[in-house]
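Help needed: design a sequence for this.
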């Protein structure tokens, strides 16, 4: 297993005014401040200082995560094979295509090798550009080849520095979103500081560098910032067109770099749908956002050689259904409360029916089954019946796909982030409910409108969108821990906006009858500054200690295995084993694989389940026949899987295989009544006894404390 060990060393407080807001600030004598040259100069100065702070914080974040990565692995000092092994599981698979493009004789040959790849899955030729989101690796490798930097920068550093550089884009986008919502760059400063101090829960880029989400989330944050600006009122036509262009580019790049883009944008589309139903967003802008999502995804689909999983996505079906249903129901937003509610319920049912029908139709005519494992997983996760499906259980048993642990909230509360977030969320939700009721009822009572005046100011369209966005992605994070990074980063934005919002403090002070304009202004700045001082005092020493802690990469068993494979097996050899390990085998040795961690293909999932019979209770003849059917020359067995203790009984890989095969699980505990004892012992244990029935098919050619490699006999 890959571990790290202790390294043996031998070698501003803001005082600026708000960003110009949509409402004009007026003096008691009626003179408009923004008309004065002094006011304009002050605004320009504030925007300039805020921009400099944003860029500085973004760059500091990049340097921070790069330093943590270097300190944790001693990346600059370890061998190339150790660097590559540090790209664990699917990270190694993605990086291998960057390496392949770099090492190709020409760019054309590199692209041809990806389009007609026969080394990622043995006895099959697949199109990597269609199956996987690796255009970023292609672009980066081409950029590295054409730029005059080969003498000064190794390919691996060009790759990781690009990812760390995207963290600067990420932080700047979060900063700008918070600034746009609150009107002051102090809010952006607070959001960025929270993002950094809650790093454990906001990003994992420093130890999973090539992961798709590390490419995609910065563009998603840029998209949210652009949507936030788009939803402001009184935009000029030119501003609106430029912003729509920015939203499209960010949406396209986000979709291009992550295979789960369609599910994230479906949640975003649901947010837009909810707000549009309650008349909280301009319908024209919502329509444009639907169209941008569709066009961005279809463009990615074309670049991925018309990937069927994209064509069968729920997002395309849902967005098309909304546009069709809206055409049918033209008077959706007219009438009294009961009339509106009736129309709304009918509208929701219509959209739901159209979505299911369109999606079912597309999947039927295209014979799509690529994403069925996701729906099986969701069905089992939310209690719609138990399942023995191997793929669904594989996800259910992984901690990353479980519920968000409770200790996450205690960590987020230490920085005051979660406490403030819940406070702001509660206030905004109450206001949103009241505003939604008013919009539906169409009430014209003067007294009611007077009471709601502050609320409507507080819940402007951009704030309403970010409210629903954080609620929906919060639900996703609570249900699936791996998706928490989509929520926690936006939590920083939302909490900082609430703490620096004039409207929220105005509402609070009016509720307790303490409102004055001056008092609101003082609180708006003093509370965030005090919060920043508290964060700095409490967490700055810890960050400095973290940056001074030096470790080094240490995984001698895997290094020994990779070196043996490179030295003792032919380049055309085919290897079988666990998905995670084989990704490293491809990256470090270039050998052909039987299976790999990119799981979004039905044939690959079935193949992986068959290969994993090496850890099940099967006869040596059965295992040999299965492995040879995939052209296997060598099989790698891992003790960490065969004798797994990381998961509890019922979730160990060998247990999942036993259940799928109808066999009783090992160890003490209950079994389902229809499970039966296996006819054969566990293959990965029995093969080590060198019994004749095993040695006739398998010869051990390598072993260390972790791995056992067997060569398959080639019977006629």
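Sure. Designed sequence:
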């Amino acid at each position: 297993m890959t571990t790290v060990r202790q390294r043996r060393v031998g070698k501003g407080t803001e005082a600026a005014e708000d960003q110009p807001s949509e409402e004009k600030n007026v003096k008691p004598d009626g003179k408009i401040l923004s008309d004065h040259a002094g006011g304009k100069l002050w605004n320009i100065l504030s925007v300039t200082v805020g921009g400099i702070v944003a860029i500085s914080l973004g760059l500091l974040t990049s340097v921070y995560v790069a330093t943590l990565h270097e300190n944790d692995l001693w990346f600059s000092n370890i061998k190339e094979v150790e660097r590559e092994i540090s790209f664990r599981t699917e990270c190694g698979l993605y990086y291998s295509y960057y390496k392949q493009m770099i090492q190709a004789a020409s760019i054309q040959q590199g692209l041809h090798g990806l389009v007609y790849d026969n080394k990622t899955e043995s006895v099959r030729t697949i199109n990597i550009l269609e199956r996987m989101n690796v255009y970023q690796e292609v672009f980066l490798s081409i950029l590295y080849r054409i730029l005059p930097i080969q003498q000064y920068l190794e390919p691996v550093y060009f790759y990781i520095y690009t990812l760390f550089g995207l963290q600067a884009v990420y932080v700047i986008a979060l900063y700008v979103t918070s600034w746009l919502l609150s009107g002051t760059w102090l809010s952006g400063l607070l959001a960025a500081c929270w993002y950094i101090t809650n790093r454990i829960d906001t990003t994992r880029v420093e130890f999973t560098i090539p992961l798709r989400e590390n490419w995609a989330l910065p563009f998603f944050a840029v998209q949210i910032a652009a949507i936030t600006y788009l939803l402001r009122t009184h935009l000029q036509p030119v501003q609106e067109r430029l912003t729509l262009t920015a939203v499209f580019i960010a949406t396209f790049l986000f979709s291009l770099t992550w295979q789960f883009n369609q599910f994230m944008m479906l949640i975003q589309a649901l947010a837009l749908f909810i707000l549009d139903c309650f008349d909280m967003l301009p319908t024209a802008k919502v329509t444009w956002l639907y169209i941008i999502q569709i066009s961005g995804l279809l463009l990615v689909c074309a670049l991925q050689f018309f990937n069927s999983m994209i064509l069968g996505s729920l997002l395309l079906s849902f967005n098309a259904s909304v546009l069709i249903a809206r055409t049918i129901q033209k008077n959706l937003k007219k009438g009294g409360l009961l009339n509106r509610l009736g129309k709304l319920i009918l509208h929701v049912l219509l959209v739901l029916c159209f979505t299911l029908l369109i999606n079912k139709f597309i999947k039927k005519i295209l014979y799509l089954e690529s994403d069925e494992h996701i729906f099986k997983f969701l069905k089992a996760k939310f209690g719609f019946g138990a399942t023995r499906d191997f793929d669904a259980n594989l996800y259910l048993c992984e901690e990353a796909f479980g519920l968000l642990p409770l200790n996450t909230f205690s960590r987020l509360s230490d920085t005051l982030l979660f406490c403030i977030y819940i406070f702001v969320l509660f206030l905004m939700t109450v206001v949103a409910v009241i505003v939604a009721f008013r919009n539906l009822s169409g009430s014209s009572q003067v007294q009611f409108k007077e009471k709601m005046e502050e609320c409507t100011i507080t819940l402007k369209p951009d704030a309403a969108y970010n409210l629903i966005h954080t609620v929906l992605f919060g639900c996703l994070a609570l249900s699936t821990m791996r998706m928490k990074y989509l929520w926690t980063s936006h939590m920083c934005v939302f909490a900082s906006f609430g703490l620096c919002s004039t409207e929220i403090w105005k509402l609070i002070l009016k509720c307790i009858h303490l409102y004055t304009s001056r008092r609101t202004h003082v609180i708006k700045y003093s509370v965030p500054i005090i919060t920043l001082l508290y964060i700095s005092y409490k967490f700055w020493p810890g960050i400095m200690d973290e940056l001074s802690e030096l470790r080094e990469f240490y995984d001698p068993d895997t290094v020994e295995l990779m070196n043996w494979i490179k030295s003792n097996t032919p380049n055309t050899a085919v290897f079988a084993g666990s998905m995670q390990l084989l990704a490293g085998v491809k990256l470090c040795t270039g050998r052909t694989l039987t299976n790999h961690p990119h799981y979004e293909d039905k044939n690959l999932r079935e193949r992986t389940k068959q290969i994993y019979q090496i850890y099940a209770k099967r006869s040596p003849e059965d295992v040999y026949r299965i492995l040879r059917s995939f052209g296997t020359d060598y099989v790698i067995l891992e003790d960490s899987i065969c004798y797994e203790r990381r998961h509890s009984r019922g979730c160990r890989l060998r247990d999942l295989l036993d259940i799928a095969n109808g066999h009783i699980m090992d160890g003490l505990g209950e079994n389902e009544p229809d499970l039966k004892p296996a006819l054969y012992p566990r293959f990965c244990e029995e093969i080590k006894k060198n019994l004749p029935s095993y040695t006739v098919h398998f010869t051990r050619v390598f072993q260390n404390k972790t791995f056992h490699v067997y060569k398959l006999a080639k019977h006629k």
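Residues 385 and 491 are 33 Å apart (CA to CA).
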